[in-house]
Amino acid sequence: QVQLVESGGGLVQAGGSLRLSCAMSGSTSRLNAFGWYRQAPGKQRELVANIHSLGYTNYADSVKGRFTISKDNPKSTLYLQMNSLKPEDTAVYYCRAGLVGSGADYWGQGIQVTVSS
């Protein structure tokens, strides 16, 4: 089994920065796809950014140039550095990890990020 625990969320003013962390434990060495998603009130959950174990990254257009996804393999931790935050970034952010093509798919419990104007 795999457990994902997010941290680093909170309240920040527009223009500020936050760094989210996702601590992964369990059988994580076999996983090759990792990502951050978010869900705002009344909206569907959406992809923010993902990263493959080979290093490929992908970002939603709305966060390109402001957010950076990274992974520390020795620490089994996924990060999302969020800069120049906007009120529309307010959402619950979720960490996700999986093995492409296997059905192995794990989610964290989510963490609130609130950006005030």
pLDDT average, as an integer? 96
Number of strands: 11
- Based on Cα principal axes, name the global outline: globular
Radius of gyration using CA atoms only: 14 Å
Number of helices: 0
Helix proportion range: under 10%
Please trace the helix and strand order, writing H or E for each element: EEEEEEEEEEE
Distance between the termini: 40 Å
Stretches with pLDDT under 50, minimum 5 residues: none
What proportion strand?
over 45%
Task: Classify the secondary structure makeup into a structural class.
Answer: mainly beta
Largest sheet: 7 strands, mixed
Structural write-up:
This protein has 117 residues and is mainly beta. It has strands at residues 2-7, 10-13, 18-26, 33-39, 46-52, 57-59, 67-72, 77-82, 91-99, 104-107, 111-116.
What key phrases describe this protein's structure?
117 residues; mainly beta; seven-stranded mixed beta sheet; four-stranded antiparallel beta sheet; 11 strands
Tell me briefly what this model is.
With 117 residues, the chain is mainly beta.
Q: What is the topological layout?
A:
Layout (H helix, E strand, L loop, with lengths): L1 E6 L2 E4 L4 E9 L6 E7 L6 E7 L4 E3 L7 E6 L4 E6 L8 E9 L4 E4 L3 E6 L1
Parallel strand pairs: 2-11
Antiparallel strand pairs: 1-3, 3-8, 4-5, 4-9, 5-6, 7-8, 9-10, 9-11
